[in-house]
Amino acid sequence: MVNKKNLTVALAGNPNCGKSTIFNNLTGSRQHVGNYPGVTVEKKEGNVAYNGYDFTVVDLPGTYSLSAYSEDEAVARDYIVKEKPDVVVHIVDASNIERNLYLYTQLAELDVPIVLAMNMSDIVEKKGNSIDYDELSRLLGKPIVKTVGNKNKGMEDLLETVLKLYEGRIKIEKIKIDYGEEIAQELKKIAKLLSKGKQSLNEYPVKWIAIKLLENDSSAIDVIKKLSNEEEILDQIEKSRHHLKLHFEDDPEVIIADRRYGFISGACTQSVRITVEERHDRSDQIDKIILNRFLGLPIFAAVMYGIFKFTFTFSEPVVGWFELLFEWMGGAVASVVPEGLIQSFLVDGVIGGVGGVLGFFPLVLFMFFSIAFFEDSGYMARAAFVMDKIMSKFGLHGKSFLPMMISTNGCAVPGIMATRTLDSKKDRLITMMVTPFMICGAKLPIFALFIGAFFPSEQGANMMFLMYVLSILLAFSSAWILKKFVFKGETAHFVMELPPYRIPTLKGLLLKMWERGWLYVKKAGTIILLISIIIWAGFTFPQMDAQEGVSEESVASMQMEQSYAGRIGKFIEPAVKPLGLDWRGGVALISGVAAKEVVVSTLGTIYSLGEVDAEEAGSLKEALIKDASWSPLKALSFLMFCLIYLPCFVAMAVFYRESGSSWKWTSFLVFWTTVMAWVASFVIYQGGTLLGIGG
Amino acid sequence: MEKIIVLTVIFVSIGFLIRYFMRSFKSEGPCFGCEDHCRCGRQ
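YS: structure for the whole thing
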């Protein structure tokens, strides 16, 4: 058993207990660490060498229990039972010990080797509380290690304890939760039937399955479906549940949960000393204002406005420098490479396309930094809580707001993945449908470009904030329509976790900003580059010959119109004309389906190709300002379309997978978003024109 | 010669793009640059 030098350690724990931080500390790998529930949906692996062993550390999704209520709980449970990690480290938020230990009661019943990591132990001390860890370890029958994840404390102790447990140098005790005589009797009857003929229970312990069956757990019922005496067991479960309901006048699952909490409460009463002041700690005081029913929403609006104001104000000069850099690069390449296809390819295709996207790199960094600040401070979880009341009026709950926030904070792909934390399939599909409406990192350059070109610079943050509010309103009203007419049914109830406030560390913020920002650069240098090359080719071929008596500007313009991409643009022009757009806008929108940044890179290529003297070409923003076919109203209509229409290809692929590989729902998403986008842009452009607000 | 170089680059780009999009449908595909590895599960 001990002769192998590799061992697998699974990290389990509640959402927001600092699990991802400990994972990062142990493995050195950089994982998204956010201060709101549900950061990790899928398990993630990393390695660490310690004392001659190679530890494979697996970060499981954060869960409150091991029931089958949501997919992430099932992922965690299945991993522990089927993959059999050598040691399970249960990370407990020591400042919230009673609630966190609920998961422990279920982990312990799985009979797996457990080490308890009491994380955030410094917060316990700051609150003036104290925990007798030795006593608690004795009561729970498992070794306990004190850790402070965000200060990287206790990691070596943790590895050492895991190793000791693995090598058998410390022993663990089986705990037995006293469910009371009535429940124990019923469990015994079910367990007896389960053990009949030594049938396979998919590796689950008999007692564990028996408890889950009493709790009416759907995946436990799935396990017994393969048994020969399935009918007999189901009959017994019904009898037992009925009997317990009569006896306790409540559902058995409620009684079982009560008994588990009773066990925890007992253990904590003997080992945890809590000060009276704790109930009135700083987080509670702040929440009195932040979550106030009248102030909550204005504060949230002010926070979002502050993020946009900060981003636009501070990034503007830096974005200007980046634009100058790419202008200079285009001019430099044009002066070195002789005029011809290769020069056009490099200047118009590569620099015009990718440069247009990379020019907004500073803006993206500023945006990610400010969002990371509110994420890490614990405010974003409050935002979901504040939105809950409003969302319930639209048929959703605050938990659906987190995927939307994640989409705003980066990308719709993890946003869609984050819907896994929703228990109801209908709620999940609705949230997945509306999550792509949010302004993701890829849409940022489009908004920054057009707002910068067509609106006064001091209005930049206001316009961005307006678009953000519009995106939320659209998502909510869309959810309401979908709930009313497509996904009818009750909204599931839930408990929204409120993690304590923490002061974000500068290192953590910079790291998060850089991780997300670097991916933006990477995407620009790979996928955006490839698409830019193809877009350039689409506008360059078939090539026209120079004609006598026709100016170079006219030849360049005719070349684009008669190119393959130009023909596609002309073909769809009638569809986008009522929105105030011409064929170029149409081509940019189509190309944006590949990735939203490509809208900018396509426009960059179009305007660069239209420029006769490559060395004199200005920035894309200047080109748009000079182009008389654009106006602020048309720009607004274009932005509206970009905000709502089809998510990018990758987000659609993830939607397809997450909707249960449903072509039906994926096609519906395509139809729904396109129709919504067209109607909204039409209303803005035609309405604005009718009101005389500049056509 | 110039045309051959450019056309080669274009076709190679198309090949890579097709590969990228085909793999998007697989759960363990390449990184999409979605800025959130732990959630999308791709490296």
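YS: worth flagging: The first strand of chain A starts at residue 6 and ends at 13.
IM: good catch. Also Confidence is low (pLDDT under 50) at residues 33-37 of chain A.
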